[in-house]
Amino acid sequence: MWPSELSPTDGGQPMGGARKVITGGHVITMDPVLGDLPDGAVLVEDDRIAAVARDAREFAGADAEIVDAAGGIVLPGMIDSHRHTWMALMRGVSADESLPQFLAGTFYGTGSFLEAADLGAASTVGALEALDAGVTTIMDCNDCVNTPEHADANVDALQAAGIRAVYNYGMQAYEFPRAFASHADRLKDAARLRAERLASDDALVTMGMLFTDFGILPFGEIAEEIRLARELGVLRASHTAAATTSILLKGLRELADHGLLIPGHVHIHCPALNEQEWRLMAEHDQRVTIAPETEMQMGMGVPPFRAAIDHGLRPGVSTDIVCVGSGDLFAQMRLGLQTQRMLDNAKVHATGTMPWTIGLTTRDALEWATVNGAHTLGLQDRIGSLTAGKKADVIVVRPRMDLVRPSHMTGAVVLQSSAADVDTVLVDGEFRKKDGRLVGQDLAAVRERANAALDRIREGHAKLPKRGPEEIAGWFGAAERMASRNFSDAYADGIPA
């Protein structure tokens, strides 16, 4: 029976705007009340999920476009809670780099010459790659805002791609020839972008701020960034404790002592947090997102899923940069889950016995990329589950090698799927991918623009000085000493009561 409040017609005329019924697939709602619906269906009206049916026959005869998900799995759009689209053109360039190598060369090197137009081309590629892989929402960390034009180019690209995004205006400074004259000028431009481009918190692209890496600037300047973000009312994020054994990117105690560890702050990576710092994270209602592939390769430390969970936090999962690994969130779920299972099992083995059960499940991993991701970005009331009233961000995963149906639906999604299996993507109720192909984009033009930009980036890299291991170690050590000095500034006027 069609629900009375969603009657398909009123006086012979369709009610509301564009309607779609996604039917024929196995629906994994990620809603704790609805659960999984093997014969369910999802009704989309305009940009919202109007209703979710346990039995698809409830929507029979609806005046709506039918989206046939037969043989597929219907899911909420996935949420990548930390991605740098500005680096999306340099695929695999850092595949064999450690964190210090990456920072000294690829990161600061690219930032020293990257022009706004080329950043825009990269952000377009990064956003479309995410959509193609079933990622409907990203926290886009643009830590290469060399000029106001760089910020605008990134926002333009996200809006044109049609992805849902929190655009994080980055405070990091580079030796760019036309960069902001001062830290104050950069803060002023962030306020300009909020007022002129991203004033609405209900738009598809909203604003956040990515703080300068903790320890790089005097403590007072970091405090200015955090206070401005609070004043602007935008999401706050930082790369935190991303270098095990190093003081760089630490500072949680200093922030807490000054009332700057504000609830909802998103901390990226976090493998180097100690027990005291994890307690601070929990006590101050902080968020954490983990990028397994980058952390494991670059020597950041062990992806801290277990530490976050054990302290009552709800970790998100993220792709970080395609300079290193996959822009496919399925791969990050899989790598993170299986690595943490291995570590948990090793603790059992150390007691002289075998693990009789598996602690973390594929459902847990799927939560990282859906409901936890929404919670991480403060968007839990809008996205993350297939729940009536939430935004219509929906994907259909249909196994490309469809020779036999899956026996464990969540397991098939997390452990056996890739971007190639994503058949359909809706964002705000609009198709972004259909029948396995991106729609609404001139992909040939995107490709031409992107490769031209990559040529210019390669030319820029060819002119950069090459640093050997000893020089990189000296550079990193100098940064650590600077961090020690900057963190001590927090107590220049004594220890807060």
From TrEMBL:
Domain Amidohydrolase-related: 73-430
GO molecular function annotation: hydrolase activity, acting on carbon-nitrogen (but not peptide) bonds
Record InterPro entries: Amidohydro-rel, Metal-dep_hydrolase_composite, Metal_Hydrolase, MTA/SAH_deaminase
Keywords attached to this entry: Hydrolase
Signal peptide (residue range): none
Superkingdom of source: Bacteria
Cited NCBIfam families: PRK08204.1
PANTHER family in the record: AMIDOHYDROLASE-RELATED DOMAIN-CONTAINING PROTEIN (PTHR43794:SF11), AMINOHYDROLASE SSNA-RELATED (PTHR43794)
Protein's name according to its UniProt entry: Amidohydrolase family protein
